[in-house]
Amino acid sequence: MAARRETSRFPFTTVRLRDLPPPDSGRIYHHDAKALGLALCVTAKGSKTFYFYKWIGRRPTRVRLGRFPDLGLEQARKTAKEMTGDVARGRDPHAERRAQVESPTLRDLFDHWLRHRGKRKKTWQDDVRQFEKYLRTWHGRRLDTIDKAAVQRWHTRTGEKHGPVQANRTRALLSALYGVAADIGYQGPNPCDGVPRFKETSRERFLQPAEMRRFFEALAEESPLWRDFFLLCLFTGARRGNVAAMEWAEIDLDRGAWFLPGTKTKNSQQEVIVLSEPAVVVLRARQKAANGHRWVFPVRSASGHIEDPRKAWARVLKASKIDDLHMHDLRRSLGSWQAAAGTSMQIIGRSLGHKDPKATAVYARLQLDPVRASVDQATRAMMTEGELVLEYQEDRPDEP
Predict the structure, then answer these.
(1) Which region, left, alpha or beta, applies to residue 268 given φ > 0 means left and ψ of -120 to 50 means alpha?
(2) Segment among 140-144, 258-262, 393-397 with least mean pLDDT
(3) Which among 55, 56, 69 is positioned nearest to 17, based on CA atoms?
(4) Taking the domains of the chain in order of start, what are their residue ranges?
(5) What is the reported pTM?
(6) How far, in whole angstroms, is CA 182 from its chain's centroid?
(7) In angstroms, rounded to a whole number, what is the distance separating the alpha carbons of residues 150 and 156?
(8) In CATH, 5-102 is 3.30.160.390
(9) What pLDDT does residue 209 have?
């Protein structure tokens, strides 16, 4: 049997509302004789809630205003009067409230962006990481509740906790998301507009001569998989994601060259990365144990190759007692050691695959021989400084 709903009408007063007894079961609606449309619902458990009640378009419409006594009688009457005026002007407050509740959240927007646009980017997995880590507390928020002030506060907190670069990158992602929010019905402004970015300073960290030996000794404690991965990051100066997804079909060991296709580069153009003699030694050893694998660094993962080297990197840093060294600093280290040997900026840029539009014409005239000579010189210098001897005769097997 359905719970009964009873009604009554009388002039509301705060004292009388406070003293209203609960019904034996179900709920009862009391209507204010002074304010058109104002009602109070009292349940069997004793809760009391103000509602705006009105017939709109031949159907009853009930909109929750708030709990009594948290919401006072005079404020409830004022709100009911305003909503009565809205109805007279043709508005439907219930439909508007429902639209607010059903309006898209930031998670809805990200999922839409990822499906239709985000995965076109080569770095979409990093976007997912940023969204899950730095915007986690906003996943369930409606898009229309995130304003410029909220973004400014979040940007400041993120910069203080995680650094200005990370705050700026995630702010850029948030702005890009709002740039496509109209696709799912959001018509408001982009809350990132007008929020200034933090000033960024170029990072100059690279492996110092005094750190080389400790670094190589720490790598020797790792499995061949991770040891070789970090060595190739250092010896090639390539981005870690490219090294992780290195394929044998891209490599010509006889020519000492790695032909990185445009589908894997930031500028969508093929890069030719020279392989120094130490890099070739590492790759030949891996090739002998490849067993027909497509990937140079195969593991049991969704992609088939290594994806997240952060735990291994943390072990290396702990074992070597080296502070404040990022994986990307290995790329910077190659260029820095080249510069220390007197190599020109054009050749360093060419060896690292930089594509500065102003220097494109210069790079086009460079042959690989001087680049190879510079990379060989730098890698040999690092190995000499770190007393590294590449030996692969008694390697342990790769980790699965």
Answers:
(1) left
(2) 393-397
(3) 69
(4) 5-102, 106-184, 209-386
(5) 0.56
(6) 21
(7) 10
(8) yes
(9) 87
